[in-house]
Design brief:
The protein has 429 residues and is of the alpha/beta class. The protein contains 17 helices and 13 strands.
């Protein structure tokens, strides 16, 4: 789960005929068909995933940058190519999506479902126009990539070349952290990318390095790294009086094995046993995932953790901003990540980070966070205790390092993506 979605001004979503901006708008180029399948398939969900937020950010940024060239399409949730989506209905759907994520704690599930049905009806498929020339099909999620025949059919229907954003190769590199069929499913996705992608964008060098052994060398196929954007404009304000209250830390993300929640729970149990009610609190922001028997046992049955560890699976963006405002740090002890979006977005919000010393997280955080081995339980215990102190030297040092730090923006990310799109569009078959 990422910390904050791309925030689109209302006029960006609803204005028709917005002029393009940036270096890719000066001359008409081949049409770009953007795949919105992931967001449509998640229309009833109140809680977005990181991939949901990325697809949303792509849609909004493309509407701003290349509106005259942009088309939307999707695969129907029941299967089969959905065809062309009416762009006005897409703008309305994006606005609905943003509002749903920002205030889901105040929304009733049935009301959201009714609105989603109306939006999906407005997004009923239109026929794909007969191509007058080559198009570029851009996809920012792994949705339906396991079905290579479907992807081939889409590209044939669109007469399009294919550019894909790859988020991670974790199920292949670390199959022990995936669902039971996760490695096999992801293998099919990577095969589809290898076979059909004319251009590839990876969200980190770590992802690209793990992807390369699974790709067949192809002359002229551009592969680029583009770190994901985040749009915190100002650090979140500290909550008044929070410094005098019991300190707390945030761990943000789905509770799944590779996130290494088990380390944190054992650290917190030790602190609770030694410190009692003076121990800091741990707030877990994210839903329970899979293969988590040991973690769930601790959360549900450990007497020592009661009152010290709190689960908050459904936190809207306003609530998360408030939680960040009082946190001593964001914790991410992961064994594996594709990029580490929570690291970059926490830093952009002015919140210190303590995270695993793995390459993807170093790409996201640079020299800002304090890095620890994900197996170093004693190191994590000592660092968290230091950060919990109101006069923490380590925390003060990181806050000083963060001065003037700026994250990757979605505009800079999209510059790289559009460079790949143009390179693919100019390829000769």
């Amino acid at each position: 789960m990422a910390l904050k979605p791309f925030r689109a001004p209302a006029q960006m979503l609803f204005s028709k005929g917005l002029p393009g901006t940036g270096r890719h708008s000066r001359r008409a180029r081949r049409p770009i068909v953007f795949d919105l399948s992931r967001l449509l398939s998640r229309a009833y969900h109140l809680t977005p995933t990181g991939i949901d937020r990325v697809e949303y950010a792509y849609a909004v940024e493309l509407l701003k940058r290349v509106p005259d060239r942009l088309r939307f399409a999707a695969v129907h949730p029941a299967g089969g190519y959905y065809g062309r989506l009416e762009i006005g209905a897409v703008r309305q759907f994006l606005a609905f999506t943003q509002a749903r994520w920002q205030t889901r704690g105040e929304a009733q599930a049935e009301a959201v479902r009714a609105q989603a049905i109306r939006h999906l009806f407005a997004l009923r498929p239109r026929a794909v126009p007969v191509p007058l020339g080559q198009r570029v099909y851009l996809q920012a999620s792994p949705h339906h990539l396991e079905d290579g025949k479907l992807v081939r059919s889409i590209l044939q229907t669109e007469r399009a070349r294919f550019v894909n954003l790859v988020h991670d190769v974790i199920p292949l590199a670390y199959p022990e952290f995936a669902r039971a069929n996760g490695a096999a499913l992801h293998t099919r996705r990577i095969r589809t990318i290898d076979r059909f992608a004319d251009g590839i964008v990876a969200n980190s060098q770590a992802t690209l390095d793990e992807l390369q052994p699974h790709l067949t060398p192809r002359a002229g196929r551009p592969t680029r790294v583009a770190h994901l954007g985040c749009e915190w404009s100002d650090p979140v304000p500290m909550i008044d009086g929070e410094g005098s209250e019991r300190p707390y830390f945030l761990c943000i993300g789905t509770i799944e094995p590779r996130k290494n929640h088990l380390l944190l729970l054992n650290v917190w149990r030790r602190m609770a046993e030694n410190m009692g009610e003076t121990a800091p609190r741990l707030i877990l922001v994210g839903r329970r995932g899979w293969e988590n028997e040991n973690v769930i046992d601790l959360l549900e049955r450990s007497v020592a953790l009661r009152g010290h560890v709190v689960e908050q699976p459904d936190v809207d963006d306003r609530q998360l901003t408030r939680l960040l405002g009082g946190a001593r740090a964001v914790l991410l002890p992961s064994f594996a990540e594709g990029y580490g979006m929570p690291v970059a977005e926490a830093l952009a919000a002015g919140v210190p980070v303590i995270c695993s010393d793995i390459s993807a997280l170093r790409e996201a955080g640079g020299d800002m966070p304090d890095y620890l081995d994900p197996l170093d339980g004693i190191g994590w215990l000592r660092t968290i205790l230091d950060y919990a102190s109101p006069v923490s030297a380590m925390r003060a040092a990181q806050c000083e390092r963060m001065r003037g730090w700026s994250p990757m923006s979605w505009a800079r990310h999209m510059d790289i993506v559009l460079d790949v799109v143009e390179a693919v569009a100019d390829q000769r078959r």
